[in-house]
Design a protein that fits this description.
The complex is a heterodimer of chains A (about 120) and B (about 140). Chain A has helices spanning about 30-45, 65-80, 95-100, 115-120; strands spanning about 5-15, 15-25, 30, 55, 65, 85-90, 110. In chain A, the strands form 2 sheets. In chain A, strands 1-2-4-6-7 form a 5-stranded mixed beta sheet. Chain A has a single domain (about 5-120), classed as Transcription Regulator spoIIAA. Chain A has 4 helices and 7 strands; from the N terminus they run βββαββαβαβα. With about 120 residues, chain A is of the alpha/beta class. The longest helix of chain A is centred in the N-terminal third of the chain and has 16 residues, at about 30-45. In chain B, helix 1 (about 20-35) packs antiparallel against helix 2 and helix 2 (about 40-60) packs antiparallel against helix 3 (about 110-120). Helices cover about 30% and strands about 25% of the residues of chain B. With about 140 residues, chain B is an alpha+beta fold. In chain B, about 35% of the residues are buried. In chain B, strands 1-2-3-5-4 form a 5-stranded antiparallel beta sheet, with helices on one face. Chain B has helices at about 20-35, 40-60, 110-120, and strands at about 5-15, 65-75, 80-85, 120-125, 130-135. Chain B has one domain (about 5-135): Heat Shock Protein 90 (2-Layer Sandwich). Classes of the chains: A alpha/beta (about 120), B alpha+beta (about 140). The interface of A and B includes residues 31, 65, 66, 73 and 74 of A.
Chain lengths: ~120, ~140
C-alpha cells in the first residue's frame, strides 16, 4: 500500500467499476516542494496503482496556485491515456472561479459533490 | 513613504519560492486588519503568489546569487505591489493565451492571466523585469 503525505485515498465501488476518491490534506496548495510531492502521489495512483477512475474532492482546499493547476492538467492527460475518468468536486466558490478564469472548467469535469461525481462512474 | 500610503513593507528576498511566503503572510495579515473583503484578499494572494514565483523561477531562474526586491503599499482605497527581479526580462505581449483551444491542456502560462484577472492594473516595465500591480478596493 502506497504511503501518501499530501492526499488521502478511499476506494469506492462505482456503477462501472472501482473509483479512487482523493481528498487533499493541504488547505493551501502553494509550496513548490509540496506541489511536486502532490503531483508524484497523484500520478502514482494512475501509473503504479493502476487506478483508472478518480474523483478529486476539493472540500478542504482554500487556495491553490497555477503550479497546482499544472499538475492537475498533467494528471488529466495520464487518466485519459489510461482510458479512465477524472472528476473534480466540492470546489469552494473562489476556487471554482480560478478554474473559470483559466477556462479549465472546460477541460475538467467538475461536479458539485461526491454523489454527483460518482454517478455513472 | 509617499503620504497617500498608510502602510508599506519593503524587502529583498532570495531566489527561493519558499522565501515569498513570509512577505505574502505579512501582506495578507495587513489586508485583513484593514478589513478588505475576503474574496479580494484571495485574489491579491493569487496575483502576488504568481508574480513572485514568476520573478524567482522565470526571472532569476532560482539563481542563489540573485534576489527579488518587493515593495507593497496600502492606502484605505488601494494596494500597490512592486516586484523587481534581476533576470533578463520578457515581453508580456509574447506570452500566448493559455485559454486558446490548442493550449488549454498545456500545463503552463496561467500565472500572468490570473494576475491580470485579479488585479486592477498590471504593468511590466524596464526590460520586463519590473512589475507594478495595483488593486483598487471594490
Amino acid at each position: 500500500m502506497a504511503v501518501h503525505r499530501r492526499i488521502e485515498v478511499m476506494n469506492l465501488s462505482g456503477s462501472a467499476g472501482e473509483v479512487a476518491l482523493v481528498r487533499f490534506l493541504d488547505r493551501k496548495i502553494i509550496d513548490a516542494a509540496n506541489i511536486q510531492e502532490l503531483g508524484d502521489e497523484l500520478f502514482a495512483l494512475v501509473e503504479k496503482e493502476k487506478k483508472q477512475n478518480l474523483i478529486l474532492n476539493f472540500n478542504s482546499v482554500e487556495f491553490l496556485s497555477s503550479a497546482a493547476l499544472n499538475k492537475l492538467i498533467m494528471l488529466d492527460k495520464k487518466v485519459k491515456a489510461a482510458k479512465g475518468k477524472m472528476r473534480l468536486c466540492n470546489l469552494r466558490p473562489e476556487i471554482y472561479e480560478v478554474f473559470v478564469i483559466t477556462r479549465l472548467n472546460q477541460l475538467f469535469d467538475i461536479k458539485p459533490n461526491e454523489n454527483d461525481a460518482l454517478a455513472g462512474m | 513613504m509617499h503620504p497617500c500610503w498608510t502602510w508599506q513593507l519593503e524587502q529583498r528576498i532570495p531566489s527561493r519560492t519558499q522565501a515569498a511566503e513570509q512577505i505574502i503572510d505579512a501582506l495578507l495579515a495587513q489586508l485583513e486588519a484593514e478589513k478588505w473583503d475576503s474574496r479580494e484578499v484571495f485574489g491579491v494572494h493569487m496575483a502576488v503568489e504568481e508574480a513572485l514565483v514568476n520573478a524567482i523561477k522565470h526571472g532569476n531562474k532560482e539563481d542563489p546569487s540573485k534576489s527579488v526586491r518587493v515593495l507593497v503599499q496600502t492606502s484605505p482605497r488601494q494596494l500597490r505591489v512592486e516586484i523587481v527581479d534581476e533576470g533578463a526580462g520578457f515581453s508580456p505581449d509574447q506570452v500566448p493565451d493559455p485559454t486558446s483551444p490548442d493550449l488549454l491542456n498545456k500545463p503552463h502560462g496561467r500565472g500572468l492571466m490570473l494576475m491580470h484577472s485579479y488585479m486592477s492594473h498590471v504593468q511590466y516595465k524596464g526590460r520586463g523585469n519590473e512589475l507594478v500591480m495595483v488593486k483598487t478596493r471594490g
